[in-house]
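Fold sample X.
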Amino acid sequence: MPTFKYKALKDDGSAYEDTAQAPSKEVLYQRLKKKDESLVTAEIAGQAGDMARWRRTINSYLSGVSQKDKIMFARNIGAMIDAGLPMSRALDVINRQTNNIALQEVVASIQDTIEAGGSLSAGLQKHQDVFSSLFVQMVRAGEESGNLPEAFDTIATQIKRSYTLKKKIRGAMMYPAIILVAMILVGIAMMIYVVPTLSSTFKEMNVDLPASTQLVITISDFLQNYTIVSLAGIAGAFAGLWGIAQTSRGKRAFEWLLLSMPLVGPLVKQTNAARTARTLSSLLSSGVNVVHALEITEGVVQNSYYEEVLAEAQKAVKHGEPLAQVFQDHEDLYPPFVGEMAAVGEETGKTASMLKRVAEFYEEEVKQKTDDMSTIVEPFLMIVIGVVVGFFAISMISPMYSLTGKI
C-alpha cells in the first residue's frame, strides 16, 4: 500500500502537512472528509512517487497551463460555486482533479490568497502569465455583481471560441506549409543526389544542353559543392525573417502584408472582427464599463492596426462619441456589419447582445472561409508542384533524346 505525503485543511481553515498510507488518493480524501478535513494535495512518498512527480512536472512545465486546462478550470469552478460549494472547497476539488503540476501550483497559490483574506480575482491576478487580463476582469466583475457562475461560464465560452478559431486557422495553414517544406526538401535531395549522376553522363557523351538543363545543373553543382553553406543560408534567411518579424516595424509590415493578401486578408479581418466583438460582448455583459472593456480588448486582438483602432475608440467613448462611429470610420479593417450592429446596439441599449451576434456571425464565416481555403489551396499547390516537376523533368529528359539520336 503506497504512502502519501499530503497537505490538508482542517475545519477551522488551518493547513497542515502529514503522511498516511492509503490504497489511493480518493480513499485518502474520503478518510479526511469523515474528519471534516479537506485534502489539498497528495503525492506518493518515496522513490516511486518522486519518479512519477518528476515525469508529471516535466510534462506540465513543458506544456504549461493549456487553453483546455483553463476551460476546465472555468467550467468546473463555476459549476461548483453555482452548486453552493465554498470557494476554498471548489479550488480544492480542482486541485485534486487535475494532473497538471503547473495548474496545481497556481490553484494552491490562489487558495493561499483567499485564506489570507484576498479575493479570487486578486489570486488570479498574481498569475498574469496564466490568466489574461480579460479572464481576471470578468471574474472581478462577477464578484462585484454577485454572479460568479455566469461569469465563469462566459469565460469558458470565450476561451473555447477563441481556441477553436485559432485551431481552425492553424489547421488550414498547416497543410500547405507541410507540402511546401516537403517539396523544398525533395528538390534539394534531387539536386544533390540525382542531377549529378545525369550531369556526368551528359558530359561524358558531350551532349549539347539546353539553357534550362544548364540552369538545373548549375544549381545542383552549387548545392553539392556548398551543401553546408546552402543549408546555413536557408536557415539564416528563415531566422532573419523571423527576427525581423519580432521587431515592431517588421511585425507591422508583416501584418500589412497579411491584410493585403487576396485570400488571407479577408480572413484576418473577419477573425479580428469576431475576436473584438466576442471580447467586448463578454466584458460588457459581465458589467465592465465600455472604456475598460475596450482597453482589455486592445490587448487581446494582437494586431497593431486593430490596437490603434481600439485605442482611438477609448478616446472617442471618453469624449461621449458613439463606439459604432469608430468602427464605421475604419471599414477598411472592420466590415460594415460590425459598425451597423454596434450602432443598433447603442440605440437599443443592447450593445453586448448585438456584438455577440456579430461574433457568432464572423466565427461561422471564418470557419467557412478556412474550409474554402483548403479547397482552393490544394489544387493550387498541385499546379505549382506540377509546374516544378514538369520543368525539372523536361530539363533532364530533353538531353536524353539528343543522346539517343547520337547513338
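Fold sample Y, listed below.
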Amino acid sequence: MRRWDPSLLLSVGLAAGFLLLSAWVVSGRTAAFDAHAVAFVREAASPVLTAAAKGLHAIGDVGGMILLVVLTLGILYAGLRLRRELVWFVGVQIGSFVTNELLKRTIARSRPIEMPVVDVSGYSYPSGHAMAAVAFCGALAMLLWPRLSTRGRGLLLAGCVLWPFAMGVSRVYLGVHYPTDVVGAYLAGGSWLCFAVWLKRRAVKRAPTVSGRRFSVPR
C-alpha cells in the first residue's frame, strides 16, 4: 500500500479549504462575517496601532520583502554556510508571490472601499502580505528548526506564528483587505509551503550521489 507524504496530504487539505472558502467568497456568503470582523478590528483603532500597522505594511510590501529576504539570505549564509537550502528558500518566496498573483487575477475580488488608511492597488483575495508572511516564516522555520535548541525552537515557533497573524490583522485594520482575504492567504500560503516541503523531500530521495555522498537539501 502506497504511503502518502504528510506534507503533501496537508497541502491538499489546505488547498481544499482554500477552494471552499473561495466559493463562499465569490457567492457572497462571507459578507456578514467580513463586516462584523472589520467593525471589531476598527474599534481598537489608535495612533500607536496605526503606526504599527503602517510599519507592517511597508515591510510586507514587495520592496520590503525583497530587502528582508536578501538580509535573511546573508545572515543564514554567513552564520550557517547554507547554500542549497537557500536556493529552496528563495524558490518558496518566488513561488508564493507568483501563486498569489495568479489567484488574485483568477478570483478578481475588489478591495474594500471604506476609507483605507494606506493607498493600495490590485485585487484583494487572497492577501499578498499575509501569504508572503506565511511563506517567509514557514520556510525560515524549516531551515532553522533542526539547528536550534529546545528554547530556540520555542522562540522560533512563537515568532513564526505571531508574525503572519500580526500581518493579517494589520491588513484588515488598514482597511485594505477583508478578513476572509487574510484567511484565504493563510490557507493558500500554507498549501504552497507544504507543497514546497514535499518537493524538497522528493529531491532528497532522487538527488544524485558523488563519491558515495548524497547532495543534501533541507529535510
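Sample Y note: The chain has one domain: 45-205.
Also: Residues 209-219 have pLDDT under 50 and may be disordered.
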